[in-house]
Design goal:
alpha+beta, disordered N terminus, 3-stranded antiparallel beta sheet, 41% helix, 5-stranded antiparallel beta sheet, globular, FAM69 protein-kinase domain-containing protein, Transferase(Phosphotransferase), domain 1, 435 residues, secreted, FAM69_kinase_dom
């Protein structure tokens, strides 16, 4: 009797696989025409597919010539439109080519789901006409996205405060930086809005309100050492960024030495975004294994999803001196039955100079035993080798995640960074000796 159960389960499993295969075959047959057309046509030259027909209610046009010239094309599976139903995030992999430089991999993003993109059109229409449907191209001129048109000199905090995480509590210094580094204009380099066309101003505000990720990448560029993917350009409602590598989750079962190095880099990122020479604190509000990627050659960890980054200006906080501004702020640990949970107070992040949020986010959601992702718990530093099971690493991770002492996370984060650096250095030395 006991042997019949696995036999029946085995047959059931094979039947499910067969049905899935038949289902896929039916889908392919039903889409034969579109399948062949997908391989023959480069939809990245189609204005409607790119959302270029929506401009100036779009994200920019700096890369449109490259798209229209056929320099950007989907990778093989990305050409199959019927697979878009599985691509909820609207993220595509493509090849970009220059005549003398060859081709390289890039990532194309629509910055939101189809539902979210439709919602932004409805919001534009309702604010402009009171109706849910209209021509957003014309309606956008009657919304708050056009409030900078004309002779407005500066983008000021009262215009955009609270529109997104990037500008939840913006300072004039931050907004000047955003305008000065805005890449969707030929005349970037000045914080004065007079150098931007009215359509470019609307695109800037549209991006700031809908998904500010492109502006984070532009304002804190990888070329200057910030741990973000490189922004390349936009066409309509599609933006292009540099391909970094496989997502961090792919390294969950990597060799211990490699995971230690990745963990060290993650703590370094937490430190850099919290304390830097520019006195901007960039707080990561959405931390998961999917939001980081690892370079295939240098093994460098990069943030690849920067939509939910809150930027606080520490100079402004010191200047305004809000209540308890100089009291260290400790993020509160809360157990959660969902994946990638974080508890935080945006008001506290905006009003304190010294905050432990980034350490807490990295430790809880990526490194410690509390980290849960895709049904797996244990964190990136799971199953250390026997000689490291003396409790020191586990104690540091626990204190960094759920501190028992007041301000314990600050000290634990520092000690954890030092400990991981020591382990990483020792591993590198051992490998060099072995060679």
């Amino acid at each position: 009797m006991l042997r019949l159960v696995p036999l029946k389960l085995g047959r059931l499993f094979r039947l499910v696989k067969l049905l899935a295969l038949v289902g896929l075959l039916v889908i392919l047959l039903m889409n034969t025409h579109s399948l062949l057309a997908s391989f023959q046509k480069n939809e990245l030259t189609d204005r409607r597919f790119l959302g270029l027909n929506k401009c100036p209610a779009c994200f920019g046009t700096s890369w449109c010539r490259k798209f229209m010239n056929g320099q950007v094309s989907f990778e093989t599976w990305g050409r199959l439109r019927f697979l878009d139903v599985f691509n909820v995030k609207n993220v595509f992999f493509a090849r970009y080519g220059e005549p003398r430089e060859g081709t390289r991999r890039v990532v194309l993003k629509r910055l939101g789901s189809n539902r979210e993109l439709a919602d932004i059109d409805q919001k534009i229409c309702k604010r402009a006409t009171g109706r849910a449907r209209c021509d957003p191209v014309q309606a956008v001129y009657k919304t708050e996205f056009s409030r900078l048109n004309g002779d407005v000199r500066l983008l000021t905090p009262e215009v955009v405060e609270g529109w997104s995480d990037l500008v939840h509590c913006p300072s004039q210094r931050l907004l000047d930086r955003v305008v000065r580094r805005y890449a969707e204009t030929k005349d970037s380099g000045s914080f004065l809005l007079k150098n931007l066309k009215d359509t470019e101003k609307m695109q800037l505000l549209m991006t700031l309100a809908f998904n500010p990720e492109p502006l984070v990448l532009q304002s804190f560029p990888s070329d200057e050492g910030w741990p973000f993917a490189k922004y390349l350009g936009a066409c309509g409602r599609v933006v292009a960024v540099n391909y970094v590598g496989e997502e961090l989750w792919s390294f969950y079962h990597a060799p211990w030495e490699q995971r230690v190095d990745l963990a060290r880099q993650l703590m370094d990122i937490a430190e850099q975004l919290t304390n830097n020479d520019f006195d901007f604190a960039l707080y990561l509000l959405d931390v998961s294994f999917d939001n980081f990627a690892v370079g295939p050659r240098d093994g460098k960890v990069i943030v690849v999803d920067a939509e939910n980054v809150l930027v606080a200006d520490k100079r402004l906080i010191r200047q305004n001196r809000p209540e308890n501004y100089d009291v260290w702020y400790e993020s509160r640990f809360e157990e959660c039955d969902k994946e990638a949970c974080l508890s935080f107070s945006k008001e506290a992040l905006c009003s304190r100079v010294t905050v432990d949020h980034n350490y807490y986010a990295v430790c809880q959601n990526l490194l410690s035993r509390y980290a849960t992702w895709r049904g797996t718990t244990g964190g990136l530093l799971h199953d250390p080798p026997p000689h490291l099971r003396d409790g020191q690493l586990e104690a540091l991770l626990d204190e960094c995640t759920n501190p028992r002492r007041r301000y314990g996370r600050f000290q634990a984060a520092k000690e954890l960074r030092d400990y991981l650096t020591q382990l990483s250095t020792s591993s590198s030395a051992s490998l060099a000796t072995a060679r």
